[in-house]
Amino acid sequence: MSSAKRLLLATAASVIGFAGIAVADTPAVSKIEVDTTFLSAEGSNVMSYYPDLASDVEQRIRARVAPSDDPTAPTLRVALREISLDGSTLLPDSKEFNKLEGVMSYSGGDEEVTMPISVSAEGAPGTSADGMIVIEPSTSDYYNAMVDVFVGAVVDAIPE
Q: Could you point out which of 10, 49, 121, 153 has its C-alpha 20 to 30 Å from the C-alpha of 71?
C-alpha cells in the first residue's frame, strides 16, 4: 500500500482517539439520514465494493452525537457524493480510494448549516527511514480510517 495510506491511517488513529468526547459537546439530534444515491451513478462501482457505506457512516455518527426522541430536535442529513481514486469513480479490484466527499445538512431551531465535507489522502514525500518497520494497513483498516475521518468532520461541523 502507498505512503498515503500509512499517513491517513496515522491521522485517523489520532482523530478516532477523541471520538468519545464529541457526544457531550454536540446538541441532541432526532434524525440522521445518510444518502448514497449519488454514488450509484453509471460508471461507478463504489457501492458494489462498499454496500454498507451508508449504515457505517450513520452508525458512526450516532456513536458521536447525543440522540433525541423529541421530533422538534435538530436533524442531520449526509449526502455522500464521491468516492474515487485519483478522480476516477471506477475503483480498481483492490478497492482503493483516496477521496471521500459529501455534503452535511444540519437543521434545528434557528440553525441551518450546509457544508461540503471532503477527505482526501495524499502521500507524504520521501520514503521510510532505513531500518524502520512499516506495517501496511489492510483495505478494511484504510476504509475505516477514511470513514472515521469523514464522520469526524461531519460531527465537528454541527453547531454547538
A: 153
Q: Which pairing describes strands 75-84 and 31-35: parallel, antiparallel, or unpaired?
A: parallel
Q: Which three cell numbers stand for residue 5?
A: 495510506
- Of 22, 34, 42, 59, nearest to 117 by C-alpha is 34
- Return the ∠ at Cα 143 (arms to 115 and 48), rounded to 5°: 95
Asked whether residue 44 carries a pLDDT value surpassing 80, the answer given is yes
CB of 73 within 8 A of CB of 28?
A: yes
In contact, 78 and 38? CB cutoff 8 Å: no
Contact 32, 62 (CB under 8 A): yes
Within 10 Å of residue 147's Cβ, how many Cβ atoms? 20
Residue 88 contacts residue 94 (beta carbons within 8 Å) = no
Task: Report the predicted TM-score, pTM, of the whole model to 2 decimal places.
Answer: 0.78
